[in-house]
Amino acid sequence: MLALTRRLLLCALFRSVYAACPPSCECSEAAQTVKCVSKDLRAVPAGIPGYTRTLFITGNQISRIGPESFKGLDNVGILSLSNNRISEVDSHTFAGLSRLRSLDLSNNQLAVIHPDAFAVLNKSLRELNLSRALYNHTSVMDLATSLCQSSLGKLQVLDLSDNSLVYLPPRVFSHMGGLRRLQLSNNSLVALHNSTLSGLESLEELDLTLNALKTVPEEGLRELDSLPGSALLLGENPFMCTCGIESFAAWLNGSQDRVRDAESLSCAFPASLRNTSILSVGSLTLGCYQKDARAELALQTSYVFLGIVLGFIGLIFLFVLYLNRKGIKKRVYDMRDACREVWEGYHYRFEADSDPRLSQVSTSAEL
């Protein structure tokens, strides 16, 4: 009886420790959820119950996270750390979360991301949200290194929207063969090149809306064609419908089954074609090339004609010189004799001025 009582006390004590909840958090054992929301926390609170499968730590003042932040939380599958002003993610920060499937780091200020920051045991991570999370260009390069070195081969959803990205490093997604949805909307991307989308054989959706694409040249079209099984979103880009848009317009007309918003894509420039569907500008821009060809031919003809005229004038000039060769020769000789006389007079005067005796003779001669 005494032994049974001890066991019951030990179980009750263990249960009380196991179910303890940090004072700044709200815990639900039934839902296996812990919420630490807008509590002005400076670090991940200690004492989070081990039963936790869903952990929300949002709206706080946490500047750094590391592997010590999540010790003893092996059961966490969903982790939200959004809007915490996190600026640094240490190496192997999430390595101890062996069951982690969804990680939300959106609305932070990530400036330093260590190469092994997203290394997760058993490659369990499926969703990674980095929307409005990158602080500067350096963090973009750090992220590219981390994505290439971390074990994210089974990642299915990656959100990089709202990060003011101007370009993407080459082969940044090459180690994410399992990625199905890639969110790149509301950035400042101006082009797709350098094998940006290499390695995304399983991609099902690519969102490029609200970027700075003025056109998609041949290299960019090859990038998009390397994703034959993915649906594409290209709306709300400032497409410039001038010479050079023809290949994109032709590609778009042949890819309407893949580009979900193809019918809504329209010209932003020039003003005369604003809001004109890109699907219908092919014939207009083809005329642009014909006009340019005629102008180039006319310019080449003008250069040829100008060369002929200048050559003819040169021949006439040489012919006139030949006809007047004797007169020109006589004039040259006359100029030479005149210059010689002037030079001899100048030389004689110089000698007279330099010799005192000659100067006296010349003076007495004048008297």
UniProtKB/TrEMBL annotation:
<keyword id="KW-0812">Transmembrane</keyword>
<feature type="domain" description="LRRCT">
    <location>
        <begin position="237"/>
        <end position="289"/>
    </location>
</feature>
<feature type="transmembrane region" description="Helical">
    <location>
        <begin position="303"/>
        <end position="323"/>
    </location>
</feature>
<dbReference type="GO" id="GO:0060028">
    <property type="term" value="P:convergent extension involved in axis elongation"/>
</dbReference>
<dbReference type="GO" id="GO:0009950">
    <property type="term" value="P:dorsal/ventral axis specification"/>
</dbReference>
<dbReference type="InterPro" id="IPR052286">
    <property type="entry name" value="Wnt_signaling_inhibitor"/>
</dbReference>
<dbReference type="GO" id="GO:0009952">
    <property type="term" value="P:anterior/posterior pattern specification"/>
</dbReference>
<dbReference type="Pfam" id="PF00560">
    <property type="entry name" value="LRR_1"/>
</dbReference>
<feature type="signal peptide">
    <location>
        <begin position="1"/>
        <end position="19"/>
    </location>
</feature>
<dbReference type="GO" id="GO:0090090">
    <property type="term" value="P:negative regulation of canonical Wnt signaling pathway"/>
</dbReference>
<keyword id="KW-0677">Repeat</keyword>
<dbReference type="InterPro" id="IPR032675">
    <property type="entry name" value="LRR_dom_sf"/>
</dbReference>
<protein>
    <submittedName>
        <fullName>Trophoblast glycoprotein 1b</fullName>
    </submittedName>
</protein>
<dbReference type="GO" id="GO:2000052">
    <property type="term" value="P:positive regulation of non-canonical Wnt signaling pathway"/>
</dbReference>
<feature type="domain" description="LRRNT">
    <location>
        <begin position="20"/>
        <end position="54"/>
    </location>
</feature>
<keyword id="KW-0732">Signal</keyword>
<dbReference type="InterPro" id="IPR000483">
    <property type="entry name" value="Cys-rich_flank_reg_C"/>
</dbReference>
<dbReference type="GO" id="GO:0005886">
    <property type="term" value="C:plasma membrane"/>
</dbReference>
<dbReference type="Pfam" id="PF13855">
    <property type="entry name" value="LRR_8"/>
</dbReference>
<keyword id="KW-1133">Transmembrane helix</keyword>
<keyword id="KW-0472">Membrane</keyword>
<dbReference type="InterPro" id="IPR000372">
    <property type="entry name" value="LRRNT"/>
</dbReference>
<dbReference type="InterPro" id="IPR003591">
    <property type="entry name" value="Leu-rich_rpt_typical-subtyp"/>
</dbReference>
<keyword id="KW-0433">Leucine-rich repeat</keyword>
<dbReference type="InterPro" id="IPR001611">
    <property type="entry name" value="Leu-rich_rpt"/>
</dbReference>
